[in-house]
Amino acid sequence: MTPSPPAKPRVDGWKFRWDVVVLLAFVLAAMRHWTDLPWHEVLGAAVVPVLAVHLWLNWKWIVDVFRRSTRSRPGEVRFNRAWDLAQCAVAGVAIGTGLAVSRNLLPALGIAPGRHRFLEDVHAFSAWALMTMIGVHLGVHAHWIWSKVRRPRFALVVVVLVMAVAGVTRLDIVRRNGAFSRRFRGDAIQVAMAIVPSGLVAFGALVVFRRRRPNSVPASG
Q1: Which H or E run contains 151?
Q2: Within 13 A of 178's CA, how many CA atoms are on the CB side?
Q3: Residues 57-81: pLDDT tens digits?
Q4: Are 74 and 219 a contacting pair, CB within 8 Å?
Q5: Which of 27, 161, 165, 184 is spaced 20 to 30 Å from 20 by Cα?
Q6: Residue/partner pairs of 42-46 with CB below 8 Å, 24 or more apart
């Protein structure tokens, strides 16, 4: 979730809402046993347009960051730029290898990719690594995220989303498909263990960095 330079409140608000969608898309795609394999592949493919819209909404910030000299940027901004590039690369590997080893989506389109154990291992590792990198990304931008969530209208959005997810978990069709089985809880634990600790470490490191550099300019992306 990449904050952009100062923008109109309405536009900035929509960027934040879409950032929440991006986060949910990656988390749900990573939790394979919630939807089982066929829908896991569909969600993985759906991440592509979701991420594309995210990049489009923040395109001005991306162009501005890459247009200027690296040395003229604060260390925090340089880190964010490198980290965003790395995240895009890992996301590309995770999505690409996931499609390459597809057992349902590609066969439904008339393509039979076969079994590739190496690519399956790369997909599993890159997906886990991406969750860890997202945790660092969230930790670095914790102040920006909090500045949005504490506003009543955004807090209401979060509450509505939580209630919607809670309602879905009560649907019989979801429970019959075993979406919230023991394997699902295992997926949830793995995702939380990837995102939460890395986010806390990144947030702590950023706090220390800002204390040592009191005159540094806060990063905008």
Answers
A1: none
A2: 7
A3: 888 877 877 776 666 667 777 888 8
A4: yes
A5: 184
A6: 42/105, 44/94, 44/95, 44/98, 44/99, 45/95, 45/99, 45/105
How far apart are the C-alpha atoms of 27 and 44, rounded to whole Å? 10
CB atoms within 10 A of CB 28: 19
Please state, as a whole number, how many other Cβ atoms lie within 10 Å of the Cβ of residue 68: 11
Instruction: Say what the pLDDT of residue 82 is.
Output: 86
Rounded to a whole number of angstroms, the CA Rg of the chain reads: 19
For tokens 């309405």, what's the residue?
10
Indicate the DSSP class of residue 6.
S
Q: Nearest Cα to 221, choosing from 52, 74, 21?
A: 74
Average pLDDT score over residue span 144-167: 76
Average pLDDT, the chain: 78
Confidence band for 220, pLDDT divided at 50, 70 and 90: very low
Of 30, 92, 90, nearest to 100 (Cα)?
92
129 to 21, 124, 190, 195, 216: CA distances (angstroms): 20, 9, 11, 10, 30
Query: Where are the domains positioned within the chain?
Result: 9-212
> Is the pLDDT score of 122 beyond 80?
yes
* Residue (of 4, 132, 172) closest to 77 by Cα position: 4
Residue type, 97: T
Rounded Cα gap, residues 130 and 51, in angstroms: 13
Residues 6+ positions from 1 with CB-CB distance below 8 Å: 16, 19, 20, 22, 23, 137, 138, 141, 145
